[in-house]
Write a structure and sequence with these properties.
280 residues; alpha/beta; Rossmann fold; 2 domains; 3-stranded parallel β-sheet; 11 strands; 16% strand
Amino acid sequence: MALRIDGKRISQEIKDELKEEVASLKAAGKEICLAVIQVGNDPASTVYVGNKKKACEYIGIKSLSYELPESTSEDELLDIIKKLNEDDSVHGILVQLPLPAHMSEDKVIDAISPAKDVDGFHVQSVGALSIGKPGFVSCTPAGVIQLLKRSNIEIEGKECVVVGRSNIVGKPMSILLLRENGTVTVCHSRTRDLKEVCKRADILVVAIGKPKMIDASYVKEGATVIDVGIHRDENGKLCGDCDFASIEPVSGAITPVPGGVGPMTIAMLMYNCVEAGKNA
């Protein structure tokens, strides 16, 4: 029977460790603060922002909330970011994506000080990751590494296949697996013989954005399968990029959706906030 990798339990473990650390920082006179900016009222974004605030509250981090109307101009948003960059009492700045169509995501992300870029999206953070220098790492891939390590799944020397090459998951994921001495192949929509490439993987990370696209025919017996996708199926139930029911019997370990990678993203955001506070 495959090991079900429990992201809820592991993320709780990380949050509990951070809670202790934040309490001792507070005792030493340092309060950590995260500023969260949301433009417009995209329903999914509102849920995510709410979850981030709850996590801050649990860990003991102060959170500042900027809920801006969709009509906010790009210059007004950049002005808020500039003020937060200059405010020494704020350690992390997070702009919830997606932004309205009249704003440039790249311009907004690059306006955030790299020292406060707790999402790990700034071009400087990405550059630091690619050459192994210190910097913030994108929260979802960082969470996947923690899931593997805390489930005692060895990465070193393993054949790792990442399906998806986005800047937020696929690319940083491949670099982090390389950093752990995995042998990494990155696949995407143009990969020939995708099934054959996936079947070589000891660790298969799927972030392709298509519901239940990967089934058992893509998976080597006993492989670890990490499903980063989140969708609703035809019955309105949450599902991932992998067909869980088909893959679970052949895999050695697998993340469910929900309850796998999802909770880890917020846990790692909290980790980045605490690091930003310590570095300030």
